[in-house]
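Example pasted here:
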Amino acid sequence: QVHLVESGGGLVQPGGSLRLSCAASGSIFRINVMSWYRQAPGKQRELVATAPTGSTTRYADPVKGRFTISRDNAENTVLLQMNSLKPEDTAIYYCHAQIRTSSAPPVFSFWGQGTQVTVSS
């Protein structure tokens, strides 16, 4: 079994910053991808940023230049540094990982429990 645990959400004023952290633990053979998604009230869950192992990070257009995703492969963690936050960034942020639990396929998909980010004055 694999668990993803997020931390770092909260309330921040517009223009402020927050850093989200997600740690993966359990039966991990290899992490292929770690990503952040978000879901605002009444909207579908959307990809925010993704960090594939050994490949280039990618960002959704609304967060380019403001958010930075980074990974610590030794610690199986992924961070999301969020700067210049806007009210429209308000959402529940979810950590997601594609993980192999053994040397053989398949790759499994895991989600964290979510952490609330509220941007408001």
Q: What stands out?
A: The radius of gyration is 14 Å. The chain has a mean pLDDT of 96. The chain is about 0% helix and 55% strand. The first strand starts at residue 2 and ends at 7.
